[in-house]
UniProtKB/TrEMBL annotation:
Highest classification ranks of the organism: Bacteria, Bacillati, Actinomycetota, Actinomycetes, Micrococcales
Native source species: Georgenia ruanii
Gene Ontology MF term list: hydrolase activity
Protein name: Alpha/beta fold hydrolase
Domain AB hydrolase-1 residues, every copy: 10-222
A Pfam family matched in the record: Abhydrolase_6
Length: 233
């Protein structure tokens, strides 16, 4: 238990194709600290809409807040994290765009030999992952039944969300931490290392899939606590 730092709030932001319920194990562990934890439910229709949803939750926080983003949620917290209540950013195997960049621009320049995420062609302005390839690409270290459920319960991801460009990256004015998942088949680890280095993040690495927030909530929680401790200090 780490109740001494319970005053620092945490806001959790999910990525594409999933919703905020995936944060429950991380939420439960942080709540053991006596900490206030909030989960943003991004519509994932546009970056602007997701930033607005995140800022709406941030408005309700009283005091310093650690803003956490997984995957596409990294783009959301990069744009929303200039909010006055945000004291630190935590990226969980996430995109970290710079000014003028979007998720699409980062996806367009993968490292040599990087796996290609099994994103299906857009339909009516939305994207999904190939259900048969979802487990290996997104959730390789989860039980197959859980991965199959995630594949069948995907939330369509709006193309406009991927195209949304960053105006003022919060990591330029806030300290940041980054968890690299070394077995990620969605965002290649070399790309994660390059983005986190550019942002000047404090980095830890852990063997895990893109769903490391589900498979290893202890590792994710430990990094969030590290950021919260730094804020409290």
């Amino acid at each position: 238990m780490n109740a001494g730092n319970a005053g620092t709030k945490v806001v959790l932001v999910h990525g594409g194709f999933v919703d905020g319920s995936g944060w429950q194990a991380v939420y439960d562990q942080l709540r053991l600290d006596g900490r206030r934890v909030s989960v943003v439910q991004n519509p994932t229709l546009s970056l602007a809409g997701d930033v607005a949803a995140t800022r709406w939750v941030l408005d309700a926080q009283e005091g310093p807040t650690v803003l956490v983003g997984h995957s596409y949620g990294g783009a959301v917290i990069t744009e929303a994290g200039t909010h006055d209540n945000v004291a630190a950013l935590v990226y969980i195997t996430a995109f970290v765009p710079d000014r003028g960049e979007s998720v699409n621009t980062l996806l367009a320049d993968p490292p040599p030999g990087a796996p290609v995420p099994p994103i299906l062609p857009p339909r009516d302005g939305f994207l999904l992952l190939d259900k048969d390839k979802f487990p290996a690409a997104f959730a390789g270290d989860l039980p197959i039944d859980q991965a199959a459920f995630m594949a069948d319960s995907q939330i369509p991801w709006g193309v406009e969300a991927l195209n949304g460009a960053i105006t003022e990256p919060a990591w330029r004015s806030r300290p940041s931490w980054y968890l690299i998942a070394t077995d990620d088949q969605m965002i290649p680890p070399p790309a994660q290392r390059a983005m986190s280095e550019r942002a000047g993040s404090t980095v830890v690495e852990s063997a895990g899939s893109h769903s490391i927030y589900l498979s290893q909530p202890e590792a994710v929680t430990a990094l969030i606590r590290q950021a919260a401790n730094a804020v409290a200090a």
